[in-house]
Every structure is written in C-alpha cells, then in structure tokens.
UniProtKB/TrEMBL annotation, chain A:
Listed SMART domains: VWA
CDD domains assigned: vWFA
InterPro entries noted in UniProt: UCP010256 (IPR011195), Uncharacterised_CoxE (IPR008912), VWF_A (IPR002035), vWFA_dom_sf (IPR036465)
Domain VWFA intervals: 223-388
Name of the molecule in the record: Uncharacterized conserved protein, contains von Willebrand factor type A (VWA) domain
Any single Pfam family the record assigns to this protein: VWA_CoxE
Organism superkingdom: Bacteria
Membrane-spanning segments: none
Region annotation (Disordered) ranges: 94-141
Cross-referenced SUPFAM superfamilies: vWA-like
Automatic annotation (TrEMBL), chain B:
InterPro entries: AAA+_ATPase (IPR003593), ATPase_dyneun-rel_AAA (IPR011704), CbbQ/NirQ/NorQ/GpvN (IPR050764), P-loop_NTPase (IPR027417)
One Gene Ontology molecular-function label: ATP binding
Recorded coiled-coil stretches: none
SMART domains: AAA
Gene3D superfamilies: P-loop containing nucleotide triphosphate hydrolases
Record's protein name: MoxR-like ATPase
AAA+ ATPase domain span: 32-193
Length: 397, 292
C-alpha cells in the first residue's frame, strides 16, 4: 500500500502524537464510528508496537483498532487519507503553507482537526441524506414542507374507545400466541424435564447424601417483544382506524411493546400511548403525528428505524410488525436494504398489508416486492376481525 | 517483540497466507493482549487463523463452539455430581459432619473445567478460539465480556479464580446476528475477505504442492469466477481445496478437457440444489473459459 497523498503536516505547537491521534479518533467519531476514550488509548498503544512512521503500517494498525464492523472497514481508508494524507490539499498544490497556516490558528490541534473533519464529514457519509435528517428533526424546510400535508387529522374522529377495547382483547391474544417461545437455556424450576444436580446435591448433604428432594430445571418461556411500525400516509387513511386501534390496544395489553408511526418521518409513540386514558393518548399522538395523511417514505423511514431505534429496542427476541400498503414515493430499493439491515438484529418481521385482503391482489407495489424476501410473514389485515384471524399464524413464528 | 511481517511469514510457513491487514490485527491483538474479533463470510478461513496461530506460537488450541442456549455449565465449569454423590455417601459412613463434607465436595477435586476456565488456568498462554460467537445468545455474550475484561472467573463455592496465563483470544462471527457494540469495542477487529486470485493460488500451492502450475491457475480462476455468480452459498477456500483434490485425484490435467467430469466434481463446490441448478454444464464451461 503506497501513500496516496502527502502526509499532513502539523503545527509545531500541537501537543504531539497523542493530540493528533485524539484528533483522528474525534474525526472518526464524527463520521459515524462508535469510539470511546478507551479506543484512543488503545490506538496509541497499537502505534507503539508497530513502526508508526510508516504510513502503511500505521494505517493497518489504526484500522484494526478503530474499525468494529465491515462497514467501518470500508469507510476507513478514505477517512484515514482525509486526516493523515490530506489528499485534497495536495491536489490544490497549496500543501505545506496552507496546511500549516490552518493549524496555526488554534493552540490545540484537536480544534483544528475538528474543523477539518467536519468539512470532510460531509463527503464521507453519503448514506445520511441531509434532507432525511432534516425531515426527521422536524426542522427541515424544503423536502419536508413539500411532501408533508399540513392538514391535521384528529385521530379521535377515527378511533373510538370501543374500538380500542376490542383491539386490546385481540392484541392480547396475538401477543400470547407469539409469546410462547421457549428458550433453549434451562433455569431452576419447581417442575421440569431435567434434574438440577447442583441444587440437588447441595440439598442432599443435609440428608447424608440421600437426594430426598429433587430440584429441577426447565426451559422458561421467554417474552417476545413486539414492535409495531404503522404507516399513516395518505394511501393508508382508510385503514388507519383498525390499525391505530390495534396499536393502541397492543400498548395497553403488553407493557414491553413498542410503537412508531411513519409518513414522511418516523415518530416514536410508545410513551404517548401509555397514557392511562386511551382517548387522551390518541390526542397526544395527534400532536406528534403532524403531517398525518401525507406522502409515504417507507424505505427511508425503515432505514432510519433500523439505524436508530432498532439498535436499542430490537433484538433476537423481537417481532417487528409493519402495517403498510408498500406504496412508497421514494426509491423502493431502500425498503429492501433497510429490512435486510433490520433482519440482522435477529428479529422476525411481519408485514401486514391491507391491500392483500383484496381478491386477486399481487404485491406489485415495487416497495412491497423489494421487501418480500426479508419478511417472515406477509399477511392481509384491514379490519380488527382480520387481525384476530391471524392468531394461528402468529403461533408459527 | 514480534514484528507483524515476521508473524505473516510464520503463518505462511505453516501454510496460511494471511493478508497484511490480518497479520497486523493479529500482531496488535497479541501485543496489547486484546481479543481479536474476526468477521467474514463462511469459508474464508477464520477458524483456521486460530489453529495456525496456535501452531505458530507452539501452544495448545482450546476451542469453544457457540450455539444458542450455551450456558455457564458448558462454557466455564461444572461440578462433578456423580463423584460428589459418592463422596457424600462415603463420608456419611465415616461419620463426618455436614460442614466438612461440604468443604470437601466443593473443592478443586470435584470441579470439571470447561473451555473458558481451562484456558485461563494453563501454565502457558493457549490460543482460545470462541467460534461463531453470534450463535450464542446475548446473555452469554454479556458474560463473556466480563471474562474477557479481567480474565477471572468466580465460582460461588470456591472463590475467584484468576488467570495464571492470559490466553490469546480469537472470536469469530459470520453475521447470524449483530454483535453488541460493547463486545466490538473491546476487541481488535479484522474483516476476512475471500482471497484474491494470487493469494488463493498461493494457498493452493502451499496446501497441495503436487498440482502443476497451469491446472492450479485454472482451478483458482474457475473458483474465483464461480464466486461472482449469483449463488446461495458461495464456495469458500476449504471447498476450493476439496475441488482441487478431487480434480487432481481424478487425474484431470485441464478443466476444459472433460465437461462431464467437471460437472461431477462440482459437488465439492456447490452445496445446495438451487446452486447446482444455477450452474449447468454450459455455464461451467464458460467459467472455465474465463478462468484461462
């Protein structure tokens, strides 16, 4: 591996190697690496066991310490170059003086690096579309206001307390059907298929080695965590009533579940729905779901979910429900990659599509077609009754 | 202190062609005493790294294969219950008191070491391979973190056992599920790719020196071309070596000579019915043409 550009020059006054490495770690962190203080320390140690003056060696050493995933590895070389090799500047032929001048502005190299890394950060994270970020923050101007319909639908018009009550019963039954997932581990239990030797032996000391009382071990049932992503874009409005009732009912039936709404952006509604008064809960959601009934960006929302909330709330014991018709106003390929990413968390994915209930329906919506390979169960649901009928299928998950 | 280049050479001498990235990661993991996490598709030789490291360092390899439901009794230690029962009976006949009996049966003598405990109690640092960590469940991963952090294990009846020697830990994963950030952060990381044509040729030459150069190049080129096809299960390095062994065992001198036999030997490379169907004789012949 030959050096791709000339090596960055640092101001004489900067705090030396440790400062530069700290600056580099900060640079990586800004570009999406998960690194802490311990990594800086580890990086310095790593440099001390190689010939750090050789750029190729330093590159490999830092890569093995700082990268933690295959994506990190792919992004690393470019980030390394932009910090240590200073590619851009070399091409502009303003090498030593321009560079030195920039570093001289600040007393501390870390600040100087911060500025530079922020600049290169833009070019190194193409996946995070700036407008997507803006939309999710709710401060975006252009895209958000173009797509978001600012008519505020009152959810109370859509869902009645009776609905929620009926949905709660169904949600509880569905939850119970999925919940019965047995663990492969064994735990001490009053009854069970195998004997817990450890406790039996211990108890038998008191009876002179005679195992009078047998302790058992069994496979406990592990609770499955249900996460619901409900599409409330314009095309889904006719079905919003059963779906929202279902989500609200689920939240009330199962305290471990988790819920999100999405249209042009993604909103977590778990906290809001936990309100004791179901109607007040809906009211709170109405406030959150500003833009309800607008266009849908399924792929981007799922991608955002997989990158953010899923890392905290979804694991191998989760079932993710997606309630959507699969009509996406953005690129449908995103849906496929987002679901693939989500799947890697080990969860199972259930897609409930209201349109599938129609006779002769084929999943032709391109978003839907892209999603199908990653979905464990694809089923129809457009009324509360049809949700209730899913119970046996849930048991097979 | 070993240099990473000498480590790479030592690996090559044992028949493992390590990329510079991998050799560097191994060197750093060794120097800093950190676990090394290897990720990559199945069949790129992750497990082989540990085996080769053990033979380079001339130490023993302790392997813990992970699976869903793996628990402490299988990974760390277990009491030898049968012996304990006998001991209790015997001491009851001698008229010993409960307390002395208890002390006796919960002593080292009755402890069965499982791989993790075994690894930290060796007189010389062994290589500890924790294979397919992503198959174990999250509880085990969390426990493992604790062990890897301070290399000590607490047995309630016995007290804390500290490591007599720090094992060289290698973890492998192939993406069954995402690993926790905590585990990733604690490890040195290296992503093992399928070898490129030259590296793979070198691997073949080292492993099966008997194959003549023209055929070896053809075999490697064919497998490399095959990996680019849309397959469910992409053939790994071990499959390539099997394929080479099959070809040379059948006395074939040129892959394009006998399409029928070539098709028959594909059983060493293609392991699902769909993949078999995806590569009919014509496609195989075209790939051989590309390889040459």
């Amino acid at each position: 591996m030959s050096p791709r550009g000339r090596i960055t020059r640092f101001a004489g006054r900067d705090p030396g190697v440790s400062g530069r490495v700290a600056g580099f770690i900060a640079h990586l962190r800004e570009n999406g690496f998960h690194l802490g203080v311990a990594e800086t320390d580890m990086a310095l140690h790593a440099l001390s066991v190689v010939r750090a003056v050789d750029p190729a060696e330093a590159r490999m050493a830092l890569k093995s310490v700082c990268a933690g995933t295959a994506q990190d590895i792919a992004a690393f070389d470019e980030l390394f170059d932009s910090y240590w090799m200073n590619e851009g500047r070399v091409r502009q032929k303003a090498v030593p003086s321009g560079d030195g001048a920039q570093a001289r502005h600040s007393r501390n190299s870390r600040e100087a690096e911060g500025g530079r890394s922020a600049a290169s950060g833009r070019q190194h994270s193409p996946e995070e579309t700036p407008d997507g970020e803006a939309a999710s923050e709710g401060t975006g101007k252009l895209v958000a206001s173009r797509i978001q319909q600012l008519m505020k639908k009152d959810l109370r018009d859509l869902v009645s307390p009776q609905d929620i009550h009926a949905a709660e019963v169904i949600a509880r039954r569905l939850g119970a059907a999925i919940r019965d997932r047995r663990s492969r581990r064994r735990k001490a239990a009053r009854k069970g298929s195998t004997i817990d030797f450890r406790r039996t032996i211990r108890a038998s000391i008191a009876t002179g080695g005679e195992p009078v009382r047998l302790a058992h071990r069994n496979r406990p049932d592990r609770p499955v965590r249900i996460t619901v992503l409900c599409d409330v874009s314009g095309s889904m409005l006719p079905y919003a009533r059963p779906f929202l009732a279902f989500v609200a009912g689920l939240m009330r039936a199962d305290p471990a579940s988790d819920a999100y709404l999405f249209h042009t952006r993604l909103v977590r509604i778990t906290e809001a729905l936990r309100d004791d008064d179901p109607l007040r809960a809906l009211n709170r959601i109405t406030l959150l779901a500003d833009g309800f009934g607008g266009g849908s960006q399924i792929g981007r929302n799922l991608e955002q979910f997989a990158r953010s909330y899923a890392r905290r709330f979804v694991d191998g014991r989760s079932v993710v429900f997606i309630l959507s018709d699969g009509y996406d106003s953005a690129a449908p390929e995103l849906t496929g990659t987002a679901l693939a990413r989500l799947r890697r968390r080990g969860c199972r994915i259930v897609w409930l599509n209201p349109l599938k209930g129609w006779d002769g329906y084929e999943p032709v919506a391109r978003g839907m077609a892209a999603a199908l390979p990653h979905v464990d169960l694809f089923a129809a649901a457009n009324t509360l009754e049809s949700l209730a009928r899913l119970e046996p299928e849930m048991g097979t998950l | 202190m070993q240099d990473w280049k000498s480590l790479q050479e030592a690996f090559a001498a044992k028949g493992y062609v390590a990329s510079p990235d991998l050799a560097m990661a191994l060197h750093i993991a060794g120097s800093l005493g950190r676990p090394l996490l290897l990720e990559g598709a199945a069949g790129v030789g992750k497990t082989e790294v540990a085996r080769t490291l053990a033979s380079v360092l001339d130490t023993e390899l302790i392997r813990l294969q992970c699976y869903e439901g793996l628990d402490a009794a299988q990974a760390i230690y277990e009491w030898n219950y049968q012996r304990q029962l006998l001991a209790i009976r015997a001491s009851a006949e001698d008229g010993q008191t409960g307390r002395t009996v208890e002390q006796r049966i919960f002593s080292e003598e009755f402890l069965l070491e499982r791989p993790l405990l075994h690894a930290i109690r060796r007189p010389r640092s062994p290589v500890l391979l924790i294979d397919e960590i992503d198959r174990a469940d999250e509880e085990f991963e969390a426990y493992l973190l604790e062990v890897l952090a301070d290399f000590q294990i607490t047995v309630p009846e016995l007290g804390t056992i500290t490591a007599t020697s720090r094992p060289h830990v290698i973890l492998t994963a192939n993406g069954t599920r995402d690993l926790s950030d905590a585990l990733r952060r604690r490890c040195i990381y290296s992503y093992v790719e399928y070898p490129d044509r030259q590296t793979e040729l070198e691997i073949l030459n080292r492993r099966s020196p008997g194959i003549e150069p023209h055929l070896a190049a053809q075999i490697v080129g064919f497998v490399q071309a095959l990996r680019k096809e849309d397959l469910e299960k992409v053939p790994g390095v071990a499959e390539m070596l099997d394929f080479a062994a099959a070809i040379s065992g059948l006395g074939i001198n040129d892959l394009s000579d006998d399409p029928e036999t070539l098709q028959a030997t594909l059983v060493t490379l293609l392991k699902t019915a769909a993949d078999r169907a995806a590569i009919p004789a014509e496609v195989a012949a075209r790939l051989v043409g590309k390889a040459a």
